[in-house]
Specification:
heterodimer, A: mainly alpha, two-stranded antiparallel sheet, 8 helices, 2% strand, B: mainly alpha, two-stranded antiparallel ribbon, 2 strands, 3% strand
């Protein structure tokens, strides 16, 4: 006998199918998706959307300048740590205390400080959080952690490294010397297959 | 015309609303793919393309395309159990020998005609469902290793991220290969049977042509 498919089957099927589609449509439409793109950082992106080419180009140059400035000013004493390794709050707390920067005076002129601040915040771990998902700290402590070596991701990623590889290794000395082992650290590349520990060789 | 939940015997009392599925006239159009199957099919196409194109550059978008695909697959499995006649697994899962026979008959140029999925198409549906399910699972397990997604903080979070990513990528590439074979099969079938199977997946209707394949 030909029997029409009962209503409950259509209903159950319809609910399953529409929930699946709802997930996709919701995911496509939420603003975070758009925030996930390359150029990000709200203040620049929003401005970019409403501005002419001349101003866009100007801002692009400003960002490039800030990058160079950061590499020069901060990179003269230590590795210019990639901005993605710290959260916005950590960078801000760090920059507001440069007169006592882990025991040293590292004060900057206000103009340069501002440019470097904008640059670091633009690429901080919590901006563009999906690209930087490994480094961002979802548990936002009340006082920002200033040291990269105190960040949860750092502790988790380095918990298998014996003392003699780093702290007791005369060629390294401290976990803060990222580029001793991560050869491309300055470019922000911390892939495991790039690691080469002085005196001990490759890690992978 | 109604969607049937049970294989149709020649109706005892044909009415205008429910004409018999098998008629002597080859011009008779019958509904084969119900609306849910069609929406499922094309949604899967869209979300698969999104997922494949975004990879981990736009991870948020990629994850949601993946979740959506997972939901679609769950719907399809459910619909394969309780859905309309040609959507049911029982309608198109055949033993491998039948698939071989069908492919042979295709080479001879006179393939048997099936109203729903032909045996080779049915096997492709199952293969794709399995491969896509595994792809979705391996993707969510990869997310879990970074503390993200629905499987975060489960047992799977302890698996090796590198392995999972490799597996996920391999499965996704395999799925793409299956898609290509599927499209080739659809085109080939359309030609040898003289029917437009792509259109049939859009409007849901097919010509009921004798000789009809086994039901």
């Amino acid at each position: 006998m030909t029997q029409p498919l009962s209503v409950w089957r259509w209903a159950v099927g319809g609910i399953f199918l529409s929930s699946a589609l709802a997930v996709g449509v919701w995911g496509l439409s939420t603003s975070d998706v758009r925030a996930d793109r390359e150029h990000h950082a709200d203040q620049y992106r929003n401005a970019d959307d409403h501005d002419d080419d001349y101003n866009k180009e100007l801002r692009r140059k400003q960002r490039a300048t800030a990058n160079v400035l950061y590499a020069e000013e901060c990179g003269s004493c230590h590795l210019a740590y990639p901005a993605k390794l710290l959260q916005t709050e950590s960078w801000q707390a760090l920059l507001s205390g440069l007169d006592n920067h882990f025991g040293d005076n590292a004060q900057l002129a206000p103009l340069e400080l501002n440019q470097i601040h904008d640059y670091l915040v633009l690429y901080a771990a919590d901006n563009n959080s999906y690209r930087n998902r490994l480094y961002s700290n979802r548990f936002n402590p009340s006082t920002p952690l200033l040291r990269i070596t105190e960040q949860p991701f750092f502790i988790k990623e380095h918990d298998e490294i014996p003392r003699e590889f780093v702290t007791d290794n005369q060629q390294v000395g401290s976990f803060s010397q990222c580029d001793s082992c991560h050869r491309d650290a300055v470019k922000g590349n911390f892939d495991e297959d790039q690691v080469n520990i002085p005196g001990y060789g490759r890690w992978d | 015309m109604k969607w049937s939940s049970t294989p149709i015997q020649p109706p005892i009392q044909p009415s205008i609303q429910t004409p018999p599925l098998q008629t002597p006239s080859s011009a008779t159009e019958v509904r084969v793919w119900d609306p849910l199957v069609r929406v499922f099919h094309w949604s899967l196409v869209v979300f698969f393309m999104i997922a494949f194109a975004t990879e981990d550059d736009w991870l948020y978008l990629h994850s949601f395309a993946g979740y959506s695909i997972t939901g679609l697959l769950m719907f399809r499995i459910l619909w394969g159990l309780i859905g309309t006649r040609h959507a049911r697994f029982s309608d198109f899962i055949t033993p491998p020998s039948t698939v071989r026979e069908y492919l042979k008959s295709m080479l001879s140029g006179r393939p048997k005609h099936y109203l729903g999925h032909n045996p080779a198409g049915g096997m492709m549906v199952i293969t794709m469902l399995v491969v896509l399910l595994l792809t979705a699972f391996s993707g969510m397990a990869t997310l879990a290793t970074e503390g993200l997604g629905p499987l975060a903080n489960t047992f799977f979070a302890g698996w090796s991220e590198d392995w999972l990513e490799d597996i996920h990528e391999t499965l996704a590439n395999l799925a793409l290969l299956l898609v290509i074979i599927h499209i080739a099969g659809v085109i080939l079938s359309s030609v040898v049977h003289g029917e437009n199977l792509i259109k049939a997946m859009i409007h849901g209707r097919k010509h009921s042509q004798p000789p009809e394949g086994p039901l």
